[in-house]
Amino acid sequence: MNAIISELGRVFGEHGAEIATAMAETGYMVLASIVFAVLIGLPLGVTITLTRAGGLLENHKVWLVADLYVTVVRSFPFLLFVVFMIPLTRLVFGTSFGTVAATFPLAFVAVAIYARLTEQILLELPSGLWQAAAAMGATVPQTVFRFLLVDGRSGLVYALTSATVSFVSYSTVLGVVGGGGIGDFAMRYGYQRYDFTLMYLTILLIVTCVVLLQALGHRVSRALDKR
């Protein structure tokens, strides 16, 4: 036990500041992904649901474009997608390296993932909900905001929690374009330098963050579930 404590003391003594910086970089990438997922992915998922065949706003062209974006982005292996996005990232930010630039492709993926999850949640709502909205003469915006999103809020929060865990995993890949983060730190300072104590410690930090995120998301989801 004393040896373990001594080894942990060495790791924090030598790399404490770098670990804190790496955690902050991961936090930035994940938080930015959540923001894009909610602000763009949620409306995109609603659009796909409404414009599909038989939807309230059936529109094949709009549905095709939106659904194609989600399908294509989600089917891309993430590492290849990051590389594929380098020219656009460089055009937008002037560079493809750094935490901010590396978050750009992750935001595209976050939007696609949460849009699909949103579509699935809304389609699983009872058909009676749609009929009740129509019977009350609700407009499309009223149907969305007063019926669908209200009744589906618990599932949407749960889906966002699951998506966030994926964002954490994806963020560990962004070290290939200088994105930093705790995963990249574990590879560079732990694995590549054969400092396995450091590597296992950073893995433990990642797992701890994921567990806490899941616990928080599940708690909020249960609190919103009024069924």
UniProtKB/TrEMBL annotation:
Example of a GO cellular component annotation carried by this entry: plasma membrane
Domain ABC transmembrane type-1 residues, every copy: 23-217
Membrane topology: Multi-pass membrane protein
Main location (coarse class): membrane
Regions crossing the membrane: 28-50, 62-84, 91-117, 129-149, 156-177, 197-217
GO process annotations (BP): D-methionine transmembrane transport
InterPro entries the record matches: AA_ABC_Transporter_Permease (IPR051322), MetI-like (IPR000515), MetI-like_sf (IPR035906)
Keywords, alphabetical: Cell membrane, Membrane, Transmembrane, Transmembrane helix, Transport
Compartments it resides in: Cell membrane
Superkingdom assignment: Bacteria
Family the UniProt entry places it in: Belongs to the binding-protein-dependent transport system permease family.
Cross-referenced PANTHER family: ABC TRANSPORTER PERMEASE (PTHR30450), D-METHIONINE TRANSPORT SYSTEM PERMEASE PROTEIN METI-RELATED (PTHR30450:SF1)
The protein, known as: D-methionine transport system permease protein
Organism: Leucobacter komagatae
